[in-house]
Structures are given as structure tokens and as C-alpha cells.
């Protein structure tokens, strides 16, 4: 049975030593550096304000053309802007092109899902690596970034025009994603379409309603809203349980939108209105209007990095996105943070996601929502 | 001090001799390869283990409590195992049968094989799964509509564990096919012929001779398949969740979604997988170790010759056409059809009237499309080549050498299989953000990530082939005065080439789909195709995505065909 090649035996002993030392080296490499995961991240700055922060403070007090005149030459001298965002690429492409056309600044874009954007920034900041100057992403992640102490204070006349819910410490809302029920118009007549959030609990939707697996922020906001309107916990829990009963659980709002167009289900509880709008614009048999109120709005915002390498460009981009950029966002079918002129949503009741609660007790709400949707019993076939 | 002086040159001489003995190419290569494998595996493993067992307050098992403390964990493990074993068995049966028919028999339509075996692998998981929803959903499935008059509505239901097994099994079967093709290619048909001569039926030969001879490959396939299915994300997320079927990965997704990500719980789940994998690798080596039993490539000359199927030939031809329609034509037609529409709708005159090539045009308008294609190609070719070269030597260490601790190399190379992609991304960015060598922010960090992720597959492909090659070939080369390196290059590499090529193709193809670590590690200018896919998906451009899927299938299919044509020129040749 012994098929050992001669060579193996001959050089057995040095090879053994070499292999052992090889693994020792590897262990050593892996061993240095201490705990990679346990340590809490800290602000990258030791004590005083960074150079970037000094510039922010100076410009924060300026207004109008004077402010622009101060920033543009500085930004163009920096020449580059490193932007991390979770904006979808179709929107981001338009926004960046417009910005680059207007100013002599090149934008380096990193685009990913909001959770990934957060992970990346935290990793980089912990290692004192200045990857980005500015971040544009979801409210939840911005809250987390702010509590990591990496975001700087931004102020100015444009920020002051943003609604309260969008003016947070460390970041400013740029746009809102609207959660609203949507339906397939081939399967649901205007009469049958849901008129209130409570309608979604109607047994007629059993097996025909879809819910998304990660919409716990929607859940907690609607929960809080109902609570404020005087419903008891039992009543609210029953409403959600009835919604989830027979509900089809889907991962991803996009898939949800696709499958709604295709008729896999009749109603979606909480999709983003812009996804449905896009499908509708292409002629798909879907609708979300008239809105079921209150529409639940999830802010997306922008934050300046304390450790920015290109602070003037970062600040110019932020100003610009809250000014010229707002009209661009509207053209892309998004809901801007600053409404100027005619507001298409002026008669619609909108409530923002309770981000504060989400950041404080998000884990708890995740678990509860998880519980709610997992009770959506299986419906056979139809 | 004069007495000491003669001793110095003497010691120097000894050291030099020792160095010279140590400095042989063989040793250097072995040490470097083992070191690289260890390094690639240990970086993420260390990160994962540390995150699992230690928090700010020291040692903890809290992650395990959170991961396994869920009241539904029983059902979850049940579902996971049912799903994983089901998919593994399905892919094993399908992949092996196809490989056998293709390599060892004179079955018709051989041309369809490579399409049938590679295309499911190329189509991104999310597209493949959605295509199956459009085919076999009880509500909107086209297949269901087709057979409704006979079987009533909703005959097929893809939203069940069986549906998940079906889709995952078919999606994974190419890995088995590639492994088994390599195994069958290296098999001496005289063994089968002797059995036939001794009066055994064809089925008996297959069961008693063919299957036992390829056992190392089969064990490797089962191992990889089960772990892969346990980790699979798209299929459980899109098909299972709808009816509340939870599996392991749904949990990993949940614990990593929160901030800060619950690495401890994710790690605890991964450690569970790791234990399973280590046992699996040990079993696979135990099976492979029985020495000569599986060594089918020996010093005796042989030409693998296909077996005649006789009257079964048309039947098998029918089976292959059916399979081809189910796994390739069906999903691919759905993709092609969708890629021509403005939004997905069931086929109708209206739908056909609205068809256009707009989605393809949009695809070419995506500014980064060419850069992404170029980067993906470079990374795919680079990681596939690097991994297979490293693993060829790695497999020699594990299978042939008598170096103590060689099993460790095998275990280490398998580790990345159980590490979630996001954790790998975090581990790599942690290390290279602090490394003095500027790798972070360049394409090389993606190359390292890909090599790490695909090392386990490369090792399985290489080890499996190595088990089949008899040591006597190497011994004769060495007796004839060849050095180790010459033997390796001139004897072993050509003999290993079917397995190495199969692994190379596999890595090339799946690297185009890698997203979970790429998305965290890429930087502007280093976009890859999978990121474009993800973006189109996020934009809700499902029809553009379908077009991209079609383009990817075409590109990779061409590459694979070229690889096979080139591959046929080396190694064992068929008659």
C-alpha cells in the first residue's frame, strides 16, 4: 500500500521544518494587530477640529453668492471629490454629470447598498484612511455614522429650508423615499384598491398581499402612528397579524415591483413609490395613487466627513445638491427634501420614519417585524 | 581567541550546505504554496473567530446564543438540511449522469452538453431564480399555464422546499458535471471492459466498477454541494421566504444586516458550517487515501474509448434534449423574452408587439460597462489561473507528499467556503487598510478576495484529479533522472490537466458573479460586472438586467468553448 514517492521521504525532515515555519509565519501574521472586530470605532481626530472642520465652520456662516464664490475656487483647486453613496446608479449618473459640467471638479463615485456604504466608511475611518469626502445615503446609516463621530457640522440657508425631520446632527436630508401600498391594476379595480393602511388587513387580500422582509422601519413608524391615533397595542398587533396572515414575503423592493407587474400578487404593502412609478411609466399595470395616507417617508441625506481630503469640494457638492440638485432629483422621479414652488404632495399627509426610535431600538423592532412576517402562514398554491 | 577561528568557516560551511539543501526549487515551491494557502485562509478565519468568540469584554459565547437561540432554529435546521441535501443529491445525480454519458458513451447531441452544463452556471443566481418564478409559479408560471388544461391550475409550485431543491440543484449541477467529466476522462476503460466481458450488465458495471472508481470525485462533489446549498442565498430568499421557509442563510443575512453587524452570531453560524466542512474534508481524504484503489491513470498505456449505448442511444438522446430544454432553453428563453420587453408580462400579442432592443441599447449606454467587462475578465482569468496553479502544488502536498501536517493544507484551503462573503470583505479591508503595501483601493484587493473565495473549489478539483494519478508515473520519471520540478511540470501537470481545466473554467465563470465581497472592496475605476448587475437590479431595471444576463451568457460561453478547444490539445486524448 505504500506509494510514497522516494522524493517525499528523502526530503521529509527539512520539508517538515519548512512547512512548520511557514504556518508559524502565517499565524504570526494573523496574530498581530489585536482585535479586529471588538474595538469600538472612534472619531479619527484626536482633539481639536480638523482642517476640513475649520473650513466648514468658516463657510457655515456665509450665505448666497459670497458663499459660492468662496467655495468654487477652493473646490476647483482641490479638483476632485470622493463621494460614497447608496443613490441608485441611474440617479447618481445624472447628478454627477450635472455637477461635473457645472464645476471643474472630477467626482470619484463609490456606489453600494446603504449598509455596505456604512461598513466601508467605518472600516476606513477606523484605519485612518480618508476614502471619501462626503456621504449620501439612508437616514438609518447616517445616524450610525454620526454616532461614530465621523460627520462634521453643516449649516447654511439651504439646510434651513429642509423640513425638521431632515435636519439632523451631522447630516441633512436631500430626498425622501415614500412608502405606499401599490397594486396591480389588472387584478385590482380602483374600487377594490386599498384606501387606508387598515384595509391591508382585510381577509380578501389573504394570499394576494406581499410584504418586504426588511421593512421594519415602515412597521415601527406605522405602529407609532396608530398608537398616537389612540389604537391599543392589541389592536395594532392584530392589524399587522392580519396583514401578515397569508402574506407573501419578498426580499427586495425591486423584485417586489417586478413580481407585482407580473401579477404574482395583487397588492404590495410597502413599496417605494418611485419604483412603482417607474414601472407605471413603462406601461406596466401597476398603480399607487390615490395615496393611502399617511404616506411614510424615509429620508436620505448627506453628511460631510470630518477627515475630508477635499473639504471645499464636499461642501460645494452639498450646497449644490440642496440647491440645483433638487430639481434634478425631481426629474428622476424622486421626492426632494426642499420643495420650492408647486408641491405635488401638498395635500398628502406625510410622516417621516421615526429614525430616532429606529436607531435606539432598531434591533428590537427588527425582531418584532421578523416575528410578524414569519407568522404569515403558508398559503397553498393560490 | 585563535582557537575559535577555524570553527567559524566550518560552521559557515555547514550552514551553507543546509541552506543549499533547503533551497531546492521543490522546497521553495512547497513552502511558498503552503504559506500562501495558509495566509489566504487564516486572515478571514482569524477575523471571523475573533469576532465570534470575543467582544469588548473578552471571551463570550453570546453569538451562539443569538444564532441558535431562535425558537425556530429546529425548523430552520430541518429546512436547511432538507434543502441542502436535496439540492446536493439532485445536482450529483444530474451532473454525474451527464458527465458519464458525455465522456464514456457514444450518446448523441454531445454539442449540447457544454451549453447545458455551463449556462446555468453563468446566469446570475438572481436571474435564474426569477426566471424559474416566471416559469413555475402557481400564479403566473408559464409552464403551469401550458399544462393547466390537463393537470389543473398551479400544478408546479416553485415556492416550496422541493421547488428550491429543483432550482438550486439544477443551478449547481455544472460544478458536479465539471468535476465528474474530469474524473471520467482519467478513467481506464479496460476495467469496465473486463467487467463487461465477465458477463456484467451495463448497469452493474456502472454501479460496481465506474462509481466506486470515481468515489473521490463523488465525495468531493457532495461536500462542495452540501456546503454551497447551505450557504446559498438567492434561492432561499426569493423562493423560500414567500411561504415562510427559513434556512441558515436567511439568519446570516439578518444578523449581518444590523449595525454594527452581529459578527458573533454570523460567525457562530459559520463555525457550525466549518465543523461540518472539516468533517467532510476528513472523510473525503479518508476515502481518497485508500491509495491505489482509485488510481486509474497508471503507467499502463490506455486510450479512453467511449462505450456503445446500443438501443439506449436514442432514449438517452431524448433525455438529454429534455434536460437541455429544462435547464437551459427554458430559463434562457425567459431571459431573452424579458430582455426584449419594457416590463415583464405574460406572452401575448400585445407583449410581442411591444418588443424592442431598447434594453440592449441602454446596456451599451452604461458608462462603466466596458471597464467592468475588462476588469471582470482580468480578475476572472487571473484568479482562475493563480488558484489552479497554487492548488496543483497544494494537491501534490496533500495527496502525494509525506510531510506531516499536510492535511492542514487541505483543511485550510477549504476554510473560505464557509466564510460569508461580507465577512471576507470586512476581513480583507481590515488587513489591507493597515498594510503598508498600497493594495486597498486597487484591483489587487479584489484579486486577493477572489483567490480566497475560489481556493476551496480549486483544491477540490485538483485533489480529486491527483487521487486518480498513480504515483508510479512520477516514480518512473524520477528513476529516469528527472528532478521534482521536471516531473511535476512534464508528467503531473499534463495528467492533471482535465481536472485543472475544469476548475479553471468553474472559477472563471463564477467569478463573474461574485458580489458580496466585491461590493465592499471595489473602488472607482475598478467596477466589475457583478456590481453593474447589482446596480441594474437596484434601479429596478429588470429588463436591462435580463439583457445583461444574455450578453454574459454569450461572452462566457465563447470563452469556455475556446478553453475547451485549447484544453483538448493537452492531457489525455479521446479516440
UniProtKB/TrEMBL annotation, chain A:
Keyword Signal applies: yes
Gene3D superfamilies from the UniProt entry: Periplasmic binding protein-like II
Secretion signal span: 1-38
Key words of the record: Signal
The keyword Signal is annotated on this UniProt entry: yes
Highest taxon in the source lineage: Bacteria
PANTHER family attached to this UniProt entry: ABC TRANSPORTER SUBSTRATE-BINDING PROTEIN, THIAMINE-BINDING PERIPLASMIC PROTEIN-RELATED
Name of the protein this chain belongs to: ABC transporter substrate-binding protein
Lineage, top ranks: Bacteria, Bacillati, Actinomycetota, Actinomycetes, Streptosporangiales
UniProtKB/TrEMBL annotation, chain B:
Membrane topology (UniProt): Multi-pass membrane protein
InterPro entries per the UniProt record, alphabetical: MetI-like, MetI-like_sf
Protein name, as recorded: Iron ABC transporter permease
A family per Pfam: BPD_transp_1
Family matches, as CDD domains: TM_PBP2 (cd06261)
Lineage: Bacteria, Bacillati, Actinomycetota, Actinomycetes, Streptosporangiales
Domain ABC transmembrane type-1: 77-282, 373-563
Single GO cellular component term: plasma membrane
Transmembrane parts of this sequence: 27-49, 81-101, 113-135, 155-184, 205-227, 263-287, 315-337, 377-399, 411-433, 439-456, 491-512, 542-564
Domain of life: Bacteria
Amino acid at each position: 500500500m505504500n506509494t510514497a514517492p522516494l522524493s517525499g521521504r528523502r526530503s521529509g525532515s527539512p520539508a517538515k521544518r519548512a512547512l512548520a515555519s511557514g504556518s508559524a509565519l502565517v499565524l504570526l501574521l494573523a496574530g498581530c494587530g489585536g482585535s479586529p472586530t471588538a474595538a469600538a470605532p472612534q472619531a479619527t481626530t484626536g482633539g481639536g477640529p480638523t482642517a476640513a472642520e475649520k473650513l466648514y465652520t468658516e463657510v457655515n456662516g456665509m450665505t448666497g453668492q459670497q458663499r459660492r464664490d468662496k467655495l468654487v475656487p477652493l473646490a476647483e483647486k482641490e479638483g476632485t471629490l470622493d463621494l460614497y453613496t447608496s443613490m441608485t446608479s441611474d440617479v447618481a449618473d445624472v447628478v454627477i454629470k450635472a455637477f461635473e459640467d457645472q464645476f471643474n471638479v472630477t467626482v470619484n463615485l463609490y456606489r453600494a447598498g446603504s449598509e455596505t456604504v456604512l461598513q466601508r466608511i467605518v472600516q476606513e475611518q477606523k484605519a485612518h484612511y480618508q476614502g471619501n469626502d462626503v456621504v449620501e445615503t439612508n437616514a438609518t446609516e447616517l445616524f450610525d455614522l454620526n454616532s461614530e463621530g465621523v460627520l462634521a457640522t453643516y449649516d447654511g440657508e439651504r439646510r434651513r429650508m429642509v423640513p425638521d425631520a431632515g435636519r439632523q446632527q451631522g447630516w441633512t436630508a436631500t430626498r425622501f423615499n415614500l412608502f405606499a401600498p401599490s397594486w396591480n391594476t389588472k387584478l385590482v379595480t380602483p374600487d377594490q384598491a386599498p384606501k387606508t393602511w387598515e384595509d391591508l388587513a382585510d381577509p380578501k387580500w389573504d394570499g394576494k398581499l406581499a410584504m418586504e422582509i426588511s421593512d421594519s422601519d415602515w412597521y415601527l413608524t406605522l405602529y407609532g402612528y396608530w398608537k398616537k391615533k389612540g389604537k391599543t397595542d392589541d389592536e395594532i398587533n392584530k392589524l399587522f397579524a392580519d396583514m401578515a396572515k397569508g402574506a407573501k414575503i419578498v426580499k427586495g423592493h425591486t423584485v417586489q415591483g417586478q413580481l407585482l407587474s407580473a401579477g404574482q400578487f395583487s397588492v404590495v404593502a410597502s413599496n417605494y413609490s418611485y419604483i412603482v412609478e417607474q414601472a407605471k411609466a413603462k406601461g406596466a399595470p401597476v398603480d399607487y395613487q390615490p395615496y393611502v395616507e399617511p404616506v411614510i417617508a424615509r429620508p436620505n441625506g448627506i453628511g460631510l466627513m470630518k477627515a475630508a481630503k477635499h473639504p471645499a469640494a464636499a461642501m460645494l457638492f452639498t450646497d449644490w445638491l440642496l440647491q440645483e440638485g433638487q430639481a434634478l432629483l425631481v426629474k428622476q422621479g424622486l421626492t426632494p427634501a426642499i420643495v420650492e414652488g408647486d408641491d405635488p404632495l401638498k395635500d398628502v399627509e406625510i410622516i417621516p420614519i421615526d429614525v430616532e426610535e429606529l436607531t435606539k431600538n432598531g434591533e428590537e423592532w427588527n425582531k418584532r417585524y421578523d416575528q410578524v412576517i414569519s407568522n404569515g402562514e403558508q398559503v397553498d398554491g393560490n | 581567541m585563535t582557537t575559535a577561528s577555524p570553527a567559524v568557516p566550518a560552521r559557515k560551511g555547514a550552514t551553507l550546505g543546509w541552506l543549499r539543501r533547503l533551497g531546492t526549487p521543490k522546497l521553495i515551491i512547497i513552502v511558498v504554496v503552503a504559506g500562501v494557502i495558509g495566509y489566504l485562509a487564516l486572515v478571514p478565519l482569524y477575523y471571523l473567530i475573533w469576532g465570534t468568540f470575543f467582544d469588548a469584554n473578552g471571551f463570550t459565547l453570546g453569538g451562539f446564543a443569538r444564532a441558535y437561540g431562535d425558537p425556530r432554529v429546529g425548523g430552520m435546521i430541518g429546512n436547511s438540511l432538507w434543502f441542502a441535501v436535496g439540492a446536493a443529491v439532485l445536482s450529483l445525480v444530474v451532473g454525474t449522469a451527464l458527465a458519464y454519458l458525455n465522456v464514456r458513451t457514444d450518446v448523441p447531441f454531445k454539442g449540447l452538453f457544454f451549453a447545458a452544463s455551463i449556462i446555468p452556471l453563468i446566469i446570475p443566481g438572481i436571474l435564474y431564480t426569477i426566471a424559474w418564478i416566471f416559469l413555475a409559479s402557481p400564479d403566473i408560471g408559464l409552464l403551469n399555464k401550458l399544462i393547466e388544461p390537463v393537470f389543473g391550475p398551479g400544478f408546479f409550485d416553485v415556492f416550496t422546499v422541493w421547488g428550491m431543491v429543483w432550482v438550486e440543484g439544477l443551478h449547481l449541477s455544472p460544478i458536479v458535471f465539471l468535476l465528474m467529466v474530469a474524473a471520467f476522462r482519467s478513467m481506464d476503460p479496460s476495467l469496465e471492459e473486463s467487467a463487461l466481458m465477465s458477463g456484467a450488465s451495463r448497469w452493474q458495471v456502472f454501479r460496481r466498477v465506474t462509481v466506486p472508481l470515481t468515489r473521490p470525485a463523488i465525495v468531493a462533489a457532495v461536500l462542495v454541494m452540501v456546503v454551497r446549498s447551505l450557504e446559498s442565498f438567492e434561492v432561499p430568499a426569493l423562493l423560500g421566504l414567500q411561504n415562510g421557509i427559513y434556512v441558515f442563510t436567511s439568519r446570516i443575512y439578518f444578523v449581518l444586516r444590523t449595525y454594527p453587524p452581529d459578527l458573533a452570531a454570523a460567525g457562530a453560524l459559520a463555525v457550525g458550517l466549518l465543523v461540518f466542512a472539516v468533517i467532510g474534508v476528513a472523510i473525503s481524504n479518508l476515502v481518497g487515501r485508500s491509495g491505489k484503489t482509485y488510481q486509474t491513470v497508471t503507467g499502463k498505456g490506455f486510450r479512453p474509448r467511449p462505450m456503445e449505448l446500443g438501443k439506449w442511444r436514442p432514449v438517452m438522446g431524448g433525455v438529454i434534449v429534455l434536460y437541455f430544454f429544462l435547464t437551459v432553453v427554458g430559463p434562457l428563453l425567459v431571459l431573452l423574452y424579458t430582455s426584449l420587453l419594457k416590463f415583464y408580462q405574460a406572452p401575448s400579442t400585445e407583449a410581442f408587439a411591444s418588443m424592442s432592443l431598447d434594453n440592449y441599447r441602454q446596456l451599451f449606454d452604461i458608462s462603466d460597462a466596458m471597464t467592468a467587462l475588462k476588469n471582470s475578465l482580468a480578475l476572472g482569468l487571473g484568479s482562475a489561473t493563480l488558484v489552479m496553479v497554487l492548488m496543483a502544488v497544494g494537491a501534490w502536498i496533500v495527496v502525494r507528499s509525506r510531510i506531516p501536517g499536510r492535511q492542514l493544507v487541505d483543511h485550510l484551503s477549504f476554510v473560505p467556503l464557509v466564510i460569508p462573503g461580507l465577512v471576507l470583505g470586512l476581513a480583507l479591508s481590515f488587513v489591507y487598510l493597515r498594510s503598508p503595501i498600497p493594495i486597498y483601493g486597487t484591483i489587487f484587493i479584489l484579486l486577493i478576495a477572489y483567490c480566497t473565495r475560489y481556493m476551496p473549489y480549486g483544491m477540490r478539483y485538483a485533489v480529486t484529479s491527483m487521487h486518480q494519478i498513480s504515483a508510479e508515473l512520477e516514480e518512473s520519471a524520477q528513476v529516469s533522472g528527472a528532478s521534482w520540478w521536471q516531473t511535476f511540470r512534464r508528467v503531473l501537470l499534463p495528467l492533471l490537466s482535465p481536472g485543472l481545466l475544469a476548475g479553471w473554467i468553474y472559477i472563471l465563470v463564477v467569478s463573474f458573479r461574485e458580489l458580496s465581497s466585491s461590493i465592499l472592496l471595489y473602488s472607482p475605476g475598478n467596477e466589475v460586472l457583478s456590481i453593474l448587475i447589482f446596480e441594474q437590479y437596484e434601479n429596478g431595471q429588470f429588463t436591462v438586467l435580463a439583457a445583461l444576463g444574455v450578453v454574459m451568457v454569450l461572452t462566457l460561453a465563447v470563452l469556455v468553448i475556446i478553453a475547451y478547444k485549447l484544453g483538448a490539445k493537452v492531457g489525455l486524448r479521446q479516440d
